[in-house]
Amino acid sequence: MGSTPDDSHPDTIWESAQKGNPTPACTTEGVDNILKAWNKKAKKDKSAIPTEQKERESASGKLLEIAKIATYFHTSDKIAYADVSIDGNRHTYSVRSKAFRLSLSGEYLDRTEKGIGSQTLQDTLSTLEAIAIFRGETREVHLRTAEYQGKIYLDLGTDDWKAIEVDSSGWRLLSDPPVRFWRPDSLLLLPIPVTGGNLDELKDLLNVDGSSWTLIVTFLLFCFCHDKTYPVLVLSAHRGSGKTAAAEIIKGLIDPNTSRLRTASD
User: Fold this and answer.
1) d(CA 163, CA 150)
2) What pLDDT, on the 0 to 100 scale, is given for residue 131?
3) Which residues 6+ apart lie within 8 Å of 246 measured at CB?
């Protein structure tokens, strides 16, 4: 058997390789050509791939620029919200709500005459959600009623997002209340109140006696008090006495919405 080169000496290994195959498999020029070809292909691949990606990044950048029209904040339980000024009125939306998505999509369409891709929209919403949670202030958001500094606020559900402020001196209509409201899709409009009304007119409409009327008025007042223990109003009478009509009227006074009335069996 022939002798084996000493693996501990690189020079010895190289000399042995030269004796066994004196002609190298690839010349220095060949290696240079391989590197040039690889670099050329890499540049070609780099310029060819990102066309769609560049368009998506461009759309995302435009959408984020549009989203600067809003102010972002979060609630104590880390839900992201956005305040958007529309025609001088403040609208408040959850960042993940359908209403906010449509608002961004509509603004993007107006500026670009194009629709926004679903993935680009979702990526942008994730960025805005992070901005709201990690950089935004903490605020509370309320449904229909709120209490702040001894005053009660009632969201009318109107397109201009106006609210009623109530205190010991009376009530007034506000365009920019100091509290935020969120609106489920089921929420309907409350009528704008007028002065000079008489609550006893409601009693005649509901067709109830004195003791029942006291309970109904108490129930109505509690509905406008925020974060209280609310009583549950149960209407009980014989069939055809107008219970459903009375319930619809009461519901329409405090929180009109598309949800159906509930019976005792519910």
Assistant:
1) 16
2) 97
3) 206, 207, 208, 235
What's the whole-model pTM score? 0.73
Q: What is the pLDDT of residue 146?
A: 94
101's tokens? 């998505």
Asked whether residue 120 carries a pLDDT value surpassing 80, the answer given is yes
| Lookup: tokens for 98 | 């359908």
Q: pLDDT tens, 145-174? A: 999 999 999 999 999 999 999 999 999 999
Taking alpha carbons only, the member of 145, 166, 158 closest to residue 191 is: 158
Judge contact between 123 and 149, C-beta under 8 A.
no
* Phi, psi (rounded to 5 degrees) for 236: -130, 125
Q: How far apart are CA 143 and CA 182, in angstroms?
A: 6
Task: Of 257, 235, 238, 232, give the one whose Cα is nearest residue 247.
Answer: 235
Q: How far apart are CA 206 and CA 250, in angstroms?
A: 9
